[in-house]
């Protein structure tokens, strides 16, 4: 049943309820994206769990969010339970073996995992506007703020930096308006108030350094399994915009950082987007268009994006059309919207003459789904009514003690736990400004040392191939150049200088931004 190059999802059923055949996700189409949908309690999270397990075993790193805390058990050995054994017997999964998976826990708040941060500069104007739910006028001002910062090589690390720049813009609105376009003082003020709200909601912890390195979510173990990064999202879900924007930022980073690989044998990374409706809900049209574009293009970087949501109508049609591998759990069909969802879901499958899709969708049992994956030259397989396999890891959460134990031996233990020390950062950066070339070389060396230290000598973990070059290639210019001469207290002065530089159209090292506004590397 376990085949090379394929991920076993479950076993499909004939109309008389006997076993039909095993259903697989072909790893070479793993980057052709996917969709897992179904009403609450129908088995979406377990499906996500067994897909993540399958990818990990195939050596594919996985990133997923743990929205309800019930996915963390993927880091623990499964435990025998009657109903799980029954399912295994039913689908012919014998022997049903348990396994624990190499998990890295992450948490924006640093409570249930390693800290995840990024800088304002790296997030960019589009996503920051989205995070703040900015009006058009506010977005205009945010764009100008980034123009000033980017063109002058002025790094915006945290919310304080951004506040300082806004202060400066407010105080010099009329002069700056001449150079950059109209800056409304009222909009500047309202953005500053929004920033305070964000700060109170805990976003202040998310912005700063050390920023997450994408190579750290692309690790594999020495025995060739892909790391499963699990983002604690229960608290984060209380701030749905931060959740949605954060995942978009991750996607955007992946897109900007990873090299083109065409269509690989298996994905380089699989990214699960749980509660995907939060991503699109009330999102401006331009953002949806950009997301659609990134999803389309990221495939050739070997990244598979899997949306998980209750209702297929939650995902815009242009995005939906790109999701090749589908697992549709049961839907209800009471309200007109629900009926429409059933129809949409049914219509997107390649029909099976044995049954009526729309009818079956409303009658599927828990942990049962309509499954269609890409096969052959990349065409969707005929839809099959499928019993999903039980997980090999634990169903349900890890205990606090287990979580701590996993974090302690994590390959990123200690790398992100402390905020970057400002004083020493400043000293380092000043030194770099003086001897930019030497310092960049030293940084390269330091990064190489760190990498080899992490990936050698009995460690259970290795970094991805690109990660060996990536830190040196990206962080040197990122830190050594634009951040050189940076001094928190004098953000306004620096802004002034950078404006002067820009105006004089001299050397201002403009940063280039990608589709979703992340920095181009
Ligand atoms: N493949 C499966 N094998 C065995 N049991 C399953 C399977 N899938 C689901 N179940 C059972 O159904 C329960 C609910 O599944 P799950 O938590 O995945 O639902 P969900 O769709 O994620 O719900 P929610 O929308 O509330 O998050 C599980 O706790 C488990 O008991
Ligand atoms: Mg769930």
TrEMBL record:
Gene3D superfamilies: P-loop containing nucleotide triphosphate hydrolases. Residues 442-488 are annotated as: Disordered. Residues 12-519 form the Helicase HerA-like C-terminal domain. SUPFAM superfamilies: P-loop containing nucleoside triphosphate hydrolases (SSF52540). Pfam families: HerA_C. InterPro entries: HerA_C, P-loop_NTPase, T4SS_component. Residues 442-456 have a biased composition (Low complexity). This is DUF853 domain-containing protein. It comes from Shinella sumterensis.
